[in-house]
Write a structure and sequence with these properties.
Length: 176
């Protein structure tokens, strides 16, 4: 794959999909994330509409455990406000933080709500929003949101059930 992407770049130096492709190649290579970041950063410079490189850049920063991940996701949703996962990732960062930075439940709530406007079927956003609402003391709304996740079998069902049980416990609805 690396050879094919380099061949494309020899023919067209500023080909965003090939730059992104090289980034993906290096992202899979041990100890080469800094090269992946280099290519992911260059792709949207040559083609600002090629937003997938922003997403991959953010994922690379996530793998490097750096705080630049937030900036990459912010650039992604600025370039493509309707990205199918960008707002969810921002919500995750604002909910959990990166190291000790960026934790902000109110921003997490807004990001998850925007994600659900963009992609209403995103069960992860529903589950995480329910958790954030519980943290913010909006227990009734958290219960309503979490109930939409517990019925369909999914990867989020178990965590939603645990959050739902916690919300019912807070509301002293022990029978539920």
């Amino acid at each position: 794959a690396e050879k094919a992407f380099r061949t494309v770049l020899k023919m067209e130096e500023d080909h965003a999909p090939a730059l992104n492709g090289l980034g993906l190649v290096f992202q899979k290579t041990p100890r080469a994330l800094q090269w992946a970041v280099k290519y992911f950063k260059r792709a949207p410079v040559v083609d600002p509409a090629y937003t997938e490189a922003y997403y991959n850049l953010a994922r690379a920063h996530h793998g490097m455990r750096g705080t630049k991940e937030l900036d990459a996701y912010l650039a992604l949703v600025k370039a493509n406000p309707k990205h199918l996962d960008g707002w969810f990732q921002l919500g995750r960062i604002y909910k959990d933080g990166i190291e000790t930075h960026f934790r902000d439940p109110e921003k997490a709530e807004r990001a998850y709500r925007t994600q659900l406007e963009t992609n209403p079927g995103h069960l992860g956003a529903r589950q995480q929003l329910g958790e954030v609402l519980r943290i913010l003391g909006k227990t009734d709304e958290a219960v309503t949101m979490l109930e939409t996740v517990v019925d369909p079998p999914s990867a989020y069902q178990r965590k939603a059930l645990l959050e739902l049980a916690t919300a019912h416990q807070i509301s002293r609805e022990h029978d539920r």
